[in-house]
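ingest -> validate -> predict -> emit
validate: passed (alphabet ok, no gaps, 236 aa)
predict: started
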Amino acid sequence: MKALILAAGLGTRLAPITDSYPKCMTAVVNGITIIEQQIKSLLANNIKDITVIVGYKSDILIPYLKTLYKDINIIENKDFQNTNNMYSAFLGYKNLKDSDFIMMNADVFFDSKTLKSLIDDVNSDAIVTDIGTWNEESMKVVEANGKLIKISKQIDKKDALGCSIDVYKFSKTAGNRFFEQCNSYIYDKGELKLWSEVALSDILKYCNFKASKLNGRWYEIDTHEDLAKARELFIK
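emit:
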């Protein structure tokens, strides 16, 4: 099992914090940053082949990542200002092709046991889902006949099974299909500013993704209000 962390974004809504360093380097609790928590969780679950896609303030983030884990793989999205995380995800293709892997956005702070539950899930393709919740800013998932059929921010509360926490498990087959779909959007259609979840939603009709019930706490951090709420949640 490998891992892909998408950490190229600008994080403008956390300014002025992100004027100095990328959002993923924001400390949440006890001095632990978002990406530090993610990497520690991966290593604790014996996932050591980790690729991080960097972009904004990469000159600061790259040496920081090396202090966390010297064997980390780093790929730079040099066009981060004009692209979105689907483009970043596709940059990881060479490292992740023909592999089972975990993918996550570098703005989600979560408990290590959350990742363990996903890895231990019997389903090869799964999305960690906070079942029964609905947040306007979060990706939501729709389930039918026991499998996930859609993921998007634009899902009505009545249709949503719950919120994705932006942590995904791909089998080799689903991963290859995902990268093919990213390639189609980026190079065939010239779509550079799409969320990776657009490609993921497209492949749900072909791949048997299941909801992996959330085990633990999580918070997606986009704004100062989010950061305050995350610190309150994890200080307990």
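The first strand starts at residue 2 and ends at 7.
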